[in-house]
Amino acid sequence: MAQLTYHQVDSDILRAMQAPGWRYYTLLSIDLIVVAWGIFAWRYTVQHGLGVWGLTHPVMWAMDITNFVFWVGIAHSGTLISAILYLFRVRWRASIYRTAEAVTVFALFTAGLFPIIHLGRPWVFHWLLPYSQFGGLWVNFRSPLVWDVFAVMTYMIISVLFFFTGLVPDMAVVRNRTSGWRQKIYAFMAQGWQGTDRQWRHYKAAYVFLAALATPLVISVHSVVSWDFAQSVVAGWHSTIFAPYFVAGAIHSGLAMVITLLIPLRRIYRLDAYITQQHLENLAKLIILTGLIVGYAYAVETYIAWYSNNVPEWQRFTYQVTGEYAIPFWIMILFNSLVPLLFFVKRIRTSTPWLFAIAILINIGMWMERFVIIVTGLAHEYDPYSWGVFIPTWVDISITLGAFAWFFLWFLLFIKFLPVISIVEVKEELPPPTRSQNGEE
Amino acid sequence: MDQERERSWTLRPHVSRKVPLIFGGLLGLGTMIFLVGLRMDPLRSWQAYLINFLFWGGIAQGGVVFGAMYHVVGGKWGPPIRRCAEGMVAFLPVNFVLFFPLYYALNMFYGSVREINPVRGAWFDPRFIFVRGGLGLGLMTVLSLFFVYYSLRPEVGWLQEQKLRPRHWLYEWITDGWQGQELEAQHCQRGLDVLSAGVLVVYPITYTFMAFDLIMSLDPFWYSSLFGGYFFISTFYLGLAGLALVCVLIRWQLGPSVVTSTQLSDLGRLLLGFNLTYFAMIWSQYIVIWYGNLPEETQFIILRLWEMPWAVFSWSVFILSTFVPFLIFLSQKAKREPKIVFAVSISVGLGLWLERYVLIVPSVWHSEVIPLGWIEIGVTAGFLGAAVLSYLFFLKNFPVLPFVSPIPSSADLDKQHAEESPAKVRLAR
Amino acid sequence: MAKNKVADSLTGLVGTFFHLDSLLQAIEQLRQAGYRDLQSFSPVPHHNIDATLEKPPSPVRYFTLAGCLLGAATGLTLTIATSLHYPLITGGKPIVSIPPFLVIVFELTILFGGLLTLGGMLFNSRLPKVNIGPAYNPRFSEDQFGLWVRCEQKDHETVTTLLKSAGAEEIIPAGQGREL
Question: Nearest by CB to A192, which of C88, C93, C128?
Fold first, then answer.
């Protein structure tokens, strides 16, 4: 990266925002079709009721909440990379944090759909919001579901704020290069940015404080989501380790999603100079860490299930291993904690095909983990008479696929409308042009 | 460069002869008090022993884990800090030896576990607990020693080559099979890579089991899946506090060019971060237990948080180890000020000692009298003596400034003073 | 300040620099010559620019603190007051149950802290700005640096010489429109 000039950085990164070709439009069309199918499936649900899903006694929460937790989890790695790594002054985050943050924002847009989708009467979703009804009755602030509302809303607002704050200087660059109605929009987003020392000073201060606020926020959000389950007394759910376990799992899946998106992005738009093999390798090393934490959590949960002498908890554990959901369970163990260990081998973590494949496996594994925890917990609770099984219907699966397509839709639009790499931060990482340098301009 | 290296060996804190004598005296006194206490009230003595064993061993292990972490992330911001952290390894073999006397306390502490929960069977036989604990601790000690060995070997090797100091059995052992500077540098770097990862992977596992076996099973009915995680985070936080304290002392001895204000401030930030992490571990357990309201879980918390006399201890733990350090370290200036960092480290250390106390004692102590008196102070003093003596041994024989760091020259001193007051920076050439 | 603010603020010169060290040198020289009202433009922030200009640290931190305190207070008030207003026992928990309320308090602390931080940044930088001042050159966001010096018409010669000696490529007279 040392040979790059500021001018070249602008050109390289803005190149991705040029008018798209037929391949992009094809991908976009397919994506829109799947989104439309997902919307159709949801409309079908609203028309005919939640019964068209596989939900039934005792499993009254299944793929809906799995998808919610999965997408909120995906959102976490973006904030890790942009906020936490920023506070630790980790230099290599500069060229990937914009994409990671975009993943966060879009994953939250996707996750935010599910609290509405999974309501029996979605037209009264506003009852979740804190306001006074019926002569002074507010929402139940003691409930983990209300904590969820606050946590996810706060996270969404702060992430969007953080995203757009970081974009302001870049928007100035784009504004200067576009014309017509496009320029007006970018000029608005740039907020009149000129790069004066005063603006930079306050910008940098705000950025540090937003990063410092976002760090405990991101830990708290997935802790709150995990408490949706841990605060209950369902066997296998009521476990104190859920909060850090879910947070580590969230970062795990998020990093995998970021790798999954970065690899094609870098290849198609020829951004190898910015998203280097070292960046991908560093992400792989972080995945080793989160994979080990997730593996640790699996082991401890097993140990405590045995140690606790708690019969329902132990039977639920054996049900996971040998029952109807044994295959998703073993996929979860294999893909989440064992497969990432392959990254200890340097040859594997520096090979793009391996990185991509393992990242996909991790995402499948993490989706399965949420599914297994939720469904097996509910399927085999305390009373054997009320044990039951959940079988997904076409509606469940369509909505799940539609959500993936919705997320991807936002990402496709992002590539074309915003710079996928932070121009300003990349320039900051380069040595500034000084008189002693040659061959510049 | 050779001159610089020579200076790194000579630039060491001056420790007067009185200091080892004082701490040696404390060690002797502590041992005596412990033995006398064994006659008078064995439970009380063993309790104090266990608390201190976990506390001082924790500081040492936490410090070494920091060193391993620093290496794994490829840190460059504080080489002297890393060496101070590595120095704590000197206490680990001592701590390992101190584990063995606990054999005599096992039945007193864990004898009831197997009776109450026969399902768990042989796993909770006190002797098996002892073997597990010993193996885990032994493994961690060995890994930590080898980690620091690879860090010290190139420097001691250079020293032997230059024949700057008389031959010493320790130096001989460390440079056994010396193959020359270049080959050794590569070899040791590889060793550091492997062992730092090893330390970081084995530490959570070992300390989780120590927490489950030695602390959690004292109350045979209570369990919390996060307890192991909570304990190793708490131990790491403790290690960081100990490290900060040592770094401030080194700075007072050797000057602000060796341990700069920026480095202190970075350590302060780490302390703040792990303060929050530590609190999150406590909170995650508390809120789940509070909400579920299951008596088998809540009794543990209620006994410690809301019943006298243990409530006083618990709230002191929160105030000393979490709230006060948090409020103080929010300020950027506070983190740069050695006196404040020193005070906060002491506060955290005290808080975490009380934490170990309040985790262990209410489970086993059932009489009216609060067990906090000369036995506890004596045993603590003994362990303190042992820990400080080990550390002094390390400081006497190894340099505080690793080779990787440039030994500060007068130009560097100027630069560092400029860093302390950025408004007065001069233009770069 | 002179009475005629508009006319005053129109007097200034903008120098364009290709190199960072030229910019820094210019700042030093101008400050030594007594011209303290300076404004730099750069495509990236650099701590040397701030250090040489010797401006005080940003007050955004106070906005953040105020936001956090406001959020905490709002959270506590909201949860406690509404529970007392319509007391309903749920899950056997006390009417005013502090542990769950603390989760809400924490989230609102972060939310308000973040919102006010952004507000603080916009307020202090006087953003959003509809009219970008005439001193701004789009190259300043690309790869060049700029320095605006407030000076009277009569001083233009001196300042021009100083800027050129530091290595300015181009010097244009320009005001800033509104006081920055």
Answer: C128
Q: Which residue of A has its CA nearest to B121?
A: A307
> What's the rounded Cα separation, in Å, for the pair A435 and B6?
38
Question: Using an 8 Å Cβ cutoff, are A399 and A65 in contact?
Answer: no
- B322: its two tokens: 């979490």
| Cα A421–chain centre separation | 18
Domain boundaries, chain A: 6-150+218-431
Q: Do B423 and C28 touch (CB under 8 A)?
A: no
ipTM of the complex: 0.92
Nearest to B425 among C21, C51, C100 (CB): C51
Q: Is A239 on the interface with B (CB under 8 A)?
A: yes
3-state secondary structure of A389: coil
Fold of C10-55+136-173: Alpha-Beta Plaits (3.30.70)
C-chain residues within 8 Å CB-CB of B286?
99
Q: Is A352 on the interface with C (CB under 8 A)?
A: no
CA nearest to C114 within chain A? A210
- Vertex C10: Cα angle to C7 and C12 (nearest 5): 135
Decide if A307 and B280 are in contact by the 8 Å CB cutoff: no
Chains that touch A (3 or more CB pairs under 8 A): B, C
Q: Which amino acid is at B373?
A: G
User: How would you write the pLDDT of chain B (429 residues) with one tens digit per residue?
Assistant: 677 777 777 777 778 888 999 999 999 999 999 999 999 999 999 999 999 999 999 999 999 999 999 999 888 888 889 999 999 999 999 999 999 999 988 888 887 776 666 666 678 788 888 999 999 999 999 999 999 999 988 888 888 777 777 778 888 888 888 887 788 888 889 999 999 999 999 999 999 999 999 999 888 889 999 999 999 999 999 999 999 999 999 999 888 888 889 899 999 999 999 999 999 999 999 999 999 999 999 999 999 999 989 999 999 999 999 999 999 998 888 999 999 999 999 999 999 999 999 999 999 888 888 889 899 999 999 999 999 999 999 988 888 877 765 445 544 545 555 554 443 333 332
Which pTM does this prediction carry?
0.92
Taking the CA of residue C99 and the nearest CA in chain B, the distance in Å comes to 7
User: Which residue does chain A place closest to B285, by CA atoms?
Assistant: A240
Contact state of B287 with C47 under an 8 Å Cβ cutoff: no
First vs last Cα of chain B: how many Å apart?
Answer: 24
Structural tokens at position A324 = 């109807």
Domain ranges (residues) in chain C: 10-55+136-173, 60-124
Contacts of A235 in chain B (CB under 8 A): none
The C-alpha atoms of residue A158 and residue A162 are separated, in whole angstroms, by: 6
Whether the CB-CB separation of A45 and A53 falls below 8 Å is answered with yes
The maximal CA–CA distance of chain C, rounded, in angstroms, is 81
Whether residues A205 and C121 touch (CB distance < 8 A) is answered with yes
Bridge partner residues of A56 (DSSP): A59
